Amino acid sequence: MKMSFQEKSIWISLILTLLIFGHYFYRAVHVFSSPDLPESKLIALFIGAVFTLIIIQIASQSILAFSHKKEAAQGKDERDHFIHFNSSRVSYFILAVGVWAAGISMLFHTSTMIMANIIMGFFILAETVGYAAQLIMYRRGA
Fold first, then answer.
1. What is the CA 104 to chain-centroid distance, rounded?
2. Is 12 left (phi over 0), alpha (psi -120 to 50) or beta?
3. Which of 50, 58, 99, 105 could join 110 via S-S bond, C-beta 3.0 to 4.6 A?
4. Closest CA to 18 of 107, 118, 130
């Protein structure tokens, strides 16, 4: 089965999100587990990850749109909106759980940086699950 333009776009977003923020969280765990590294180092690392994701996303999505001009010009149809809507419901649930987890972590007097990373981790998890749900729905022909 041939992949649509929307599926290819989602695959790009999924892979880039996993690679860039996978690297960020790998480094974050290293910072939190090493007492001699300041947590403030994570701010620069996070900003770098966000800018890297934005720049690579723009470049890769532009290349995809340029190589599939006809499909890109058509835009999204009802099915695409339906799939996006349903995957957003799943993502929202995961993000809500993450916000609650960050709130509960306050009971244990965690640092602000750990709380911020809990929220960010659940945000990235929600995005990843949302992308995966979209891909599954496209494959199933939803």
1. 23
2. alpha
3. 105
4. 130
Q: Which of 10, 17, 36, 41 is nearest to 120 (CA)?
A: 17
* Residue 39 Cα to chain centre, angstroms: 22
- Give the count of domains, the chain: 1
User: Token match 């996070």: residue?
Assistant: 46
Q: pLDDT tens digits for 53-108?
A: 999 999 999 999 899 877 767 777 788 888 888 899 999 999 999 999 988 988 88
Tokens 């649930």, residue located:
93
- CB under 8 Å to 77, separation ≥6 — which residues? none
CA 130 from chain center: how many Å? Answer: 8
What does pTM read for this prediction?
0.85
Q: Which two tokens stand for residue 9?
A: 């776009």
pLDDT digits (tens, 9 = 90+) for 69-84: 777 677 777 888 888 8
Angle, helices 5-33/112-140, rounded to nearest 10 degrees: 160
Residue labelled with tokens 């995966």: 132
Please report where in the chains the tokens 């690392």 appear, as a residue.
45
